[in-house]
Design brief:
Elements (H helix, E strand, L loop, with lengths): L9 H19 L12 H13 L6 H6 L1
Length: about 70
């Protein structure tokens, strides 16, 4: 949605998608631990994405807030 609405560049879109797919795989394989202290699953994923791809991961929050 962020990419199709022009909020992020095509490169950022691909970086976010790649990062989310990697996180999905890590969760499915049991390689990723979600923190109970986080507000919810969205905040856990956002934190993991930022750790994985850097500042671009912060842009995911715009979609959660929309």
């Amino acid at each position: 949605m962020l990419g199709s609405q022009g909020f992020i560049s095509p490169e950022e879109r691909e970086e976010i998608i790649r990062g989310l797919k990697e996180i999905e795989e890590e969760i499915e394989e049991g390689k990723c631990v979600l923190e109970e202290e986080a507000e919810d699953i969205h905040m856990n994923v956002e934190k993991l994405l930022i750790e994985k791809i850097g500042d671009t991961g912060q842009k995911l929050h715009a979609c959660i807030s929309a």
